[in-house]
Amino acid sequence: MWYFRSPEIIFGEESLSYLETLGIGKAVIVTDKNIAAAGMVDRVKANMPDTECMVIDDIPEEPRYADIAGHLDKIDAFAPDYFIAVGGGSSIDSAKILFFKHERPDLEFYDVTPLVKLNLRKKSRLIAIPTTSGTGSECTWAAVITDEKEKRKDELASPEIMPDYAILDPEMVKTLPKTQTINTATDAMTHAIEGYTSRWNNPYSDAMAEKAMELIVPSIIEVSAHPDNIDSRNSLHIGASMAGLSFSNSQIGLAHALGHSLGAIFHIAHGKSVGIFLPEVIRFNYSTVKERYDRLNRIIPEKYRKPTLDQSMEFILKTIGQNTKISETGISRELYGQNMENLISLAAESTGIITNPRDANMKDIKNMFENAY
Question: Residue 66's Cα: distance from chain center in Å?
Fold first, then answer.
């Protein structure tokens, strides 16, 4: 027996106007200072004029448990009926955990697992409004939080922390800087490819992954050259959410396992991290899922397509200005080597090891880390 889980998705121009139909009394808006300064929060509030709002605008790029816990008392006193995440994956993931802890203050962070019944939504609901096109967090039941003590990124997951609503308004990503546009789109392509080849793939996740690749590849190439192209922005935004739905309903693979490890130790942006390892992981998996990789490769427009998917992805990543090797990030070979044991250890703890289509041992993981440099 399988499940396909999804929020209610509202997409296209003027999607934010849907907020006014929900009758929201009190809302906690979770975002970061850059998004707030750019006027995105004001745009959201303008679409629910009768709502009393509390704004949390200090979510960092890599949120830690301490960053979450510090807001809980004032949230409980405010007693919201909705949490609204406005931002990228960090803000959305933080909102998921704040929502969980407000609902269940008796539970610990590590209780967010598929094995624990959380019984949420007794007090509030959750809305995600992404301002990036790539993390897919608005459509997933996972949250990545940094464990400051263990110096690693924890992957918390429960179907109950999936947003109730995902609002995909292209105006919210129209002015997204080029670097963030490229990094988050790289993440989205990795979601689609890994969701498609996960051991837990299924017909629903397959359909989302295939359509996601069809939308994302030409759109990110166009947007990286012409950022004001609103039609391509819209296609990229929708494709990224589809990629999120794909991997959320089938799970990730080794590119995420290795990318999370690199990001935790060297603080490299998530999309860049997973993209660096994607071609190498595809090569490692090719013999196991060749037919699936070849099918995805045929979806890529002919002018960007190479003989194999790993070659196509390397070409696309270079075309949009993305790093494809660790050495391009400024990390020295010496420092990289000094951290190799820790990199391998953290990657081996990821759920991506379990659902990757091919089994990988410690030696395999080390080889991929070394080859990616």
Answer: 21
Q: In the beta sheet, which residues pair with residue 30? A: 56, 85
Q: Is the pLDDT of residue 151 over 80?
A: no
The C-alpha atoms of residue 173 and residue 181 are separated, in whole angstroms, by 9
C-beta of residue 26 within 8 angstroms of C-beta of residue 52: yes
Alpha helical stretches, state H, the chain: 33-37, 40-46, 65-69, 72-78, 89-103, 178-197, 203-225, 230-248, 254-266, 270-299, 309-319, 333-338, 340-348, 352-355, 362-371
Angle separating helix axes 203-225 and 178-197, nearest 10 degrees: 160
pTM (predicted TM-score): 0.91
pLDDT tens-digit profile of 112-149? 988 889 999 999 999 999 999 988 899 999 898 877 66
Q: How far is CA 170 from the centre of its chain?
A: 17
Q: Which domains does the chain have, with CATH numbers?
A: 8-172 (3.40.50.1970), 178-371 (1.20.1090.10)
